[in-house]
């Protein structure tokens, strides 16, 4: 693939470099924030054989590239940096773009920008922990050995120190100094502060509060970073320029860390506990229905970018309880889509469609990346949406009947399988995977054969 050529066409199709406010990439997509979305040439993007499609979601204009997106992104950045006009973001232009984006879009875009950089690393941590669990199960290592402790530390570091990393990207997204944000997150894990036993009473400047453990937390950090950003912006606006270099960090640190301990921690914990209570009520109310719904429809939630609302909740529950049910069932739609792609690969009469299906099936089976299948197969043949839903629901049904859960976060596919193999529910999990693939495959095959029979009957008539 000519990455420079693809990047140049993509840039032209979103309205040129002067229309780009910012751009990042995830596993398969270029995610543009544009000044004027009306300048996007969607037809040109859809017609480009090197691109898989276009989605407008989460306040972003997203071009689906596929697994080669890092290379295209690397080729794109120099094209943007060559701009002689525009790295300048005119205030009125930017304000106009902000007005066009709805509040929900802006919230989703913010959550997406905060969490996107960490998802691959979280998945990698889950795989490492899964592999480690397998070695213990097979008797190759013991949990008390030094080797186990070293590799456990590697897999657990991302999860334990998540507040530090989350504070960095959240502060950056809220337009404040990310390094000060990271120090605030690190302070909460510093041994003198983290050493307070959870639930114990602590006296801070005469104010008594209940200590809590901030490792792996999400909501308290997001709250503290938003308030920190407001405080920093206020100080930079009202303090003399020559005082800001030292005074702003000092004030922010000595105010935000205690406030997080006293206010944001308890409030965030209360919100998290409330969400967890609702989650438990739904789960225990009807586990089978819960798993079936997630199995059949979570892949469509991902399509529209709404998973960024649910994922932080799922990760918080996984971190606090050590197990999570919806992540297990939610992955079944990915495998149902794999079944759809395999059926199209085998039974389609179109050489081009078989090529797309084969490529989509490969990346899905290997690493759980679904965009090529979604935009290369499903969007162009919308009847297969039913096959994906049926396959996902069938896999979710198996999980609901067996009470299947996961103990680590990872992508679906072969590369992520160690994280699931190490789970106590590994056997029913992979039975659900097989059922989802088979049902997705059979449903697609029946649809394709039914369509051919109908066409043949029409010709005879």
From TrEMBL:
GO terms for cellular component: plasma membrane. InterPro entries: Glu_permease_IIB (IPR036878), PTrfase_EIIB_Cys (IPR018113), PTS_EIIC (IPR003352), PTS_EIIC_1 (IPR013013), PTS_IIB_1 (IPR001996), PTS_Sugar-Specific_Components (IPR050558). Coiled coil: none annotated. The active site is at residue 26. Residues 4-86 form the PTS EIIB type-1 domain. This is PTS transporter subunit EIIC. Residues 109-461 form the PTS EIIC type-1 domain. Keywords: Cell membrane, Kinase, Membrane, Phosphotransferase system, Sugar transport, Transferase, Transmembrane, Transmembrane helix, Transport. The lineage of its organism: Bacteria, Bacillati, Bacillota, Bacilli, Lactobacillales. GO terms for molecular function: kinase activity; protein-N(PI)-phosphohistidine-sugar phosphotransferase activity; protein-phosphocysteine-trehalose phosphotransferase system transporter activity. Gene3D superfamilies: Glucose permease domain IIB. It is found in: Cell membrane. It comes from the Bacteria.
